[in-house]
Amino acid sequence: MKFSIGGSLKLAFRPWVEGIENIPAEGPAILASNHLSFSDSFFLPAVLDRKVTFIAKAEYFTSPGVKGRLTAAFFKGVGQLPVDRSGARGAGEAAIKSGIEVLERGELFGIYPEGTRSPDGRLYRGKPGGLARVALATGAPVIPVAMIDTEKVQPPGKIVPKMIRPGIRIGKPLDFTRYQGMEGDRFILRSVTDEVMYEIMKLSGQEYVDIYATAAKRQIADAAKAAEAKKKAEAEQAKKAAAE
Fold first, then answer.
1. Which helix (H) or strand (E) holds 53?
2. CA-CA distance, 16 to 9, in Å (whole number)?
3. Are residues 90 and 197 located together in one domain of the fold?
4. Using CA atoms, how far apart are residues 1 and 236, in angstroms rounded to an integer?
5. Do 117 and 217 fall into the same domain?
6. What values do phi and psi take at 53, rounded to 5?
7. What is the CATH number of the domain that holds 34?
8. Claim to verify: residue 98 and residue 217 sit in the same structural domain
9. pLDDT tens by residue, 97-142
10. Quick check: 89 pLDDT over 70?
11. Residues 141, 228 share a domain
């Protein structure tokens, strides 16, 4: 099913790829990518000859009805792995465990260090837990990946994609074996994550923002609420002024 979905995506969108030679023909590797769109987890596997496994919410695999079964089949077909995210800490540990298991099988594991999609197309600070811990626990090389224009193919909240040609840049593998056994050191985890994010930034050309994307989303939501409240207040004032 992966090949049929991948073939359809390549035929429909014709994604361009640079650096495909940096993907090893065999053996474990971590693909660390920026995250612009829901479709990132489909375009990257579509252009690779090898299977790459990403983490996905368990709800995508357990929804009821015909739609739920079709969604589950689709996510399984493109190499998504369900993880229960009901608890923040538990979800993180489950994702790390799953990533280690994938790599121990000699496969490719895909991860988004930002932890969530960018709210505005900029690159945000990488979370130090998942990526660095998996890399140091397994010794697998980390390959930085930049998704280009995928947010234009499927903007957040949009179901029907636009026929825009996205791109993928794949960087050279990064070796962090010098830090193996040090996954309990938060400064090492931060250093590894920042090095990977710097490489992603160079590949993507995105503006870098040194806060977490989750915090940025909260700021955007708060600003939207404040603007709406201001608009309502001004409308009330105008209404009162007209009545006087």
1. strand 52-57
2. 12
3. yes
4. 57
5. no
6. -105, 125
7. 3.40.1130.10
8. no
9. 889 999 999 999 999 999 889 999 999 999 988 899 999 999 999 9
10. no
11. no
Mean pLDDT, range 57-86, rounded to an integer:
62
Q: Are residues 232 and 144 both part of a single domain?
A: no
The pLDDT of residue 59: 60
What is the separation, in whole angstroms, between the first and last Cα of the chain?
Answer: 69
DSSP string, 135-170: HHHH---EEEEEEESHHHHS-TT--SPP----EEEE
SS3 assignment, position 74: helix
Whether residues 224 and 103 share a domain: the answer is no
Question: How many domains does the chain divide into?
Answer: 2
Same-domain check for residues 202 and 218:
no
Q: In which domain, by residue range, is 225 found?
A: 212-243
User: Are residues 35 and 74 both part of a single domain?
Assistant: yes
Q: Which of 217, 225, 221, 239 is nearest to 115 (CA)?
A: 217
Out of 90-94, 202-206, 210-214, 225-229, least confident range: 90-94
Amino acid at position 13, single letter = F
- Tell me the C-alpha distance between 70 and 80, whole Å: 14
CA distance 189 to 244: 63
**63 C-beta neighbours (distance < 10 Å), count:** 13
